[in-house]
Amino acid sequence: MKTQILISAITVSAFALFPYSANAQIPTVTYAQGKYQTQAPDWSKITWDTLPPVEQPGYLKIPQNLISVFGYDPSRSWSAGQKADSVVMLGDIDDAFKTSSFTLKQLSTIVPINPKLTLKDIGLMQWQTPLSLLKAIPEIGNLNANQVPPITAIMSKVSMGGGKISRLIASNPEAANIPLGKLDLAKYSTESIPGLTTTPLNKFQGWQGSFVNQVPGLSQVPFDQMPRKIDSGIGVVGIASVVLGQAERGDAKVGSNYFISGSVVRGDRTVPVACNSGKECPYLELGDFSGSDGTLYGKRWASGSSQQVKGGYGFLSRVNGGKEPTGRLVYGNAFKVALTGINESTGTADFGLFFRICARPPFMQKTCTPYFIGPVPWFSVKENDLVIVGGGR
Asked: DSSP letters of 270-327?
C-alpha cells in the first residue's frame, strides 16, 4: 500500500511586480564574437548577495512524514522583493556549487568575515546537538566537557559529571539530543567548539536546511570561486535575430525541434518543448554564425511568462502543479533562465532566473521541485545582440 504524499506550494502568476533594470546593476563583461557582442555576466563579481530580489511570493510546506524521510525540513515561504540568499537553502544548490564542502576557515580566505562570530551567526548550529557535534567533529569526544562550553551547558540541563565528552554523551542520551538552540548562542564564540571552523558544512546534521545567508561569508563568495564553479554558458552562443510578441500563437506544424526552450528533466538537462497550438507564444528567434546551416538558425526561445511546461522529478515534482516556465539551463542547474518579457517595438527580450528546491533523501534519488521560485531579473538582449544559450545542462 502506497503512502499518500501531499505537498503544498503556491506562487503568484504575474511577472515583473517591480520595475528593475538588471543590465544596469548586475556586473557584466563585454563578450564579442565577430561583429556581434553582448553584455555577459561577470561571474567574478556576481554573488548571492548581489543578485536582484525575487519578484514573486510563494511557499512550500512539506508534510511531517516527508521531513523524517529527508532528514531536514525544506519548507519555507518568501515574499516579493526578498533576496535569493534568504530563500535558497544549501540542499537546493549543492549539486551545482558543492557549497557544503566549504569550511568557515576556507570562506574567510575568500571574503572578509567578522572575526568575532558567535554560534548564533551560524544558522545550522541551532539544531545541532551534543551527539550531532560529536559525529561531525569526532575529535571533541576526547576532550573534557569543560573544554567545550556549549556542550557543558546542554549536558548540565539534565545531568552532569566529569570525564570525556564521548563518555558523557553515551551515558546521557536524553541530554545528548537536546538542540543547542535551547541556549543563548550569542554567548558562545566559534572557538567554544574546537574544530568547528575547519569542519566542512556537510558534516553537520541537517546542513541542507541552512539558508545561504545563514553561512557567514557565503553570500559574498563570487560564483566563479565556488568549490564547483559556475558554467559561463558561452560555449553555445546564438544571435538574437527577431523578437515576436503576444500576437504569435503556437502552430501544430512547428514541433519541439524548432525550440531551444522547454522542460528540465531528471539528469538536469533541458528538453525542448513546442508552444501549444493556438495558444499565445511570444518568442525570440535565433540566428547562427554559420548561417542557415547552423544548428541554432531559426530556433525559438519561447516566453516563460506565456508557456508553462512540466518540471521537477521525484516526490517534489508535484509542487506548483508540476509546472515551471519554459526556458533552459544556461549556466548549469542552480537556476533556469526563462524569457520573461518581449517588446516587439523595441526589438528587446528580457530574461529572468528561476530557482527550485531539491532534496536527496538517504538511499534515494535526488528529488526537485519545478523551477518556480522567481523570477530574479536578469539580462535583456536586443535584436542583433549575441544570446548566451549554454549547453542546456
From this structure: EEE-PPPBTSB--EEEEE-TTGGGSTTTT-EEEBTTT-EEE--BSGGGGGGGGEEESB
Q: Are 206 and 200 in contact (CB under 8 A)?
A: no
Under 8 Å CB-to-CB from 267, ≥6 apart: which residues?
A: none
Mean residue pLDDT of the chain comes to 90
CA 34 to CA 158: how far, in whole Å?
72
Task: Judge whether residue 320 has pLDDT over 70.
Answer: yes
- What pLDDT, in 10s, does the model give residues 61-99? 988 888 888 889 999 999 999 999 999 999 999 999 999
Q: What is the pLDDT of residues 5-33, one digit of tens each?
A: 445 554 443 333 333 444 448 899 999 98
Instruction: Give φ, ψ of 316 to 5 degrees.
Output: -80, -5
Inter-residue contact 330 to 262 (CB < 8 Å): no
Q: What is the pTM of this model?
A: 0.90
